[in-house]
Fold each of these.
Amino acid sequence: MPATVVIGTQWGDEGKGKIVDLLAADADVVVRFHGGNNAGHTLVVNGEKTILNLIPAGVLHPGRVCMMGPGVVIDPEVLTAEIDALRKRGYLGEDRWLRVSERAHLIMPYHRAIDRARERLRGAGKIGTTGRGIGPAYEDKMARTGIPVGELYDEAGFRDALARNLREKNGYLEAILGEPPLSFDEIHARYGEYRERLRPFVTDTGVELRAALAAGKRVLLEGAHGMMLDVDHGTYPFVTSSSVVSGAAAAGAGLPPRAIERVIGIAKAYTTRVGSGPFPTELTDALGERLRADGDEYGSTTGRPRRCGWFDAVVVRQAVALSGVDGLALTKIDVLTGIDSLRVCVAYEIGGRRRELPPATQRDWERAVPVYEELPGWRESLGAVRALADLPANARRYVRRLESLVGAPLTILSVGAQREQTIRCDAAFAA
Ligand code: IMP
């Protein structure tokens, strides 16, 4: 049975948590393939809100195997706290339901310290990172000085790697960033505790995942972040440090690309972004504030207010094309209720030229002027609607227009945070 990938098509926070939770009901294994605890998934089940930063959203379905693949970076302090919090609430009943790749890289305290100090020094030019050490951890991985999770279990090797890295990082922290040095003994002792806490979960996830597929299990690959934060295809340098597109899922999970059969792209019915960087359709007026309030647009990881704006078809069109999106999951359309006239960005004008796809350079991003199309709004509340045919005509028209602008058919429409506030439009995913 082939795998399905779910990815965000904007700047993250598209509502992936809810959609993955829904799709996980039909999956046996749910895998994260990139990023770390910079991601945040908010799920509301039976009125109870859960925020997950690392463990795949499938964890709220007992019996699902949740995996973190080699492409993920793992802060063991966050992972162990998340395991504890979930267990306290009755989830993750068995150790075998959580699998952590021995090849995933560890986020170390010096990664966090460097991330935050650099952002502070950048001042107005900051990227607006989550401060979780994600970028510095991926830097070390690529520089071949990172420490994979499996190295924790070679105690002498871990001690050597930590001592070597800390010498270098403390020099950098003190001399360049003006930060205090970190203590070897403290980190060594703490990571020794994580070694034991994580022992039941650490494994070669690639082998287990490929075996699950061969045995006909249904696999869901859960993207974190959004396509415009992709390190190759996003609004560089205002991006995260991993590959977000569906093409990265195979490598980050440990699968051949042909194992992936279907790609679901998640888009919010409007646009949000946390952190700095270009956002052509941003609304800095009262309407933007209204979207933030009605959509509860505050970062689930950092609590920062999200920047809000109109739906940008240029961005989602790019995501659909790059990731081969087969079906669109559109979220939070209920938040648009009551806005008389809705705008959708259909193209950008850059230096007098119309562009259907995003530009590559910062200069062009700064000059990009959205070309808008106006669509009539609706006043009816959508939270109780359970069939497309029951949507107000203008809401249906809005959805249909987005489908045609981005080039992908609707597969799921979400009309509220609860699991049941969902319209499934695709027989392949019918419950
Ligand atoms: P980093 O991933 O912490 O290095 O942050 C880089 C950029 O990506 C910042 O603008 C963050 O706000 C943004 N970012 C990272 N993860 C997410 C996410 O899950 N949702 C939304 N924005 C994110």
Amino acid sequence: MVKLNGKKKLNVCIFISGRGTNLKSIIDFSKEKESPIKIDLVITNNKNAKGINFAKKNNIKYIYINYKNVDKAEDKIIIILKKHNIDFICLAGFMKILSNKIINIYKNKILNIHPSLLPRYKGLNTHKRVIKNKEKFTGCTVHLVNEKLDSGKIILQKKVRILKKDSEISLSKKVLKIENKIYPKAIKKFVNSNL
Ligand code: GRF
């Protein structure tokens, strides 16, 4: 649970590995006057992540973490998060699985966005699989992170219709647009809720 408890803004750290459209949408949200969050930090495991540019443009500090040794990487991350007084974490296209060590320290304080209607289609290549299975709907989900992959409590979910003409690419574009919309909404819902 995260609460403002008199604080003006909650300190958020966003984890990315790539493009960063969800990071961008959360940055835009953080700039709204009534937004309950301040993005204090961006962490990436990929030096070349395009999303880093959104951090740079907005004067948000970003830190690259070398993940060659996962244990050491996570120890570093924990020290950094504590130093920055991070209230909660948003995973936004972060392609590493966090171990229980971090998850337990930030219990119910880590959000993730996943491109499917969880609990269906956990894991990778969701769009490819829904098309292969001739599903009529897919969608995206913002959920809390727990020890099991893509299995934590659902905060917000939105359905997207799959058309006959949809390909993996067209569908991923459609879903991504919705992802970018729901992540800020999910954060709003999460802050000061009893989740
Ligand atoms: C999104 O589809 C998200 O659901 C998944 O990774 C992708 C990240 O996209 N976890 P972006 O880097 O935010 O543009």
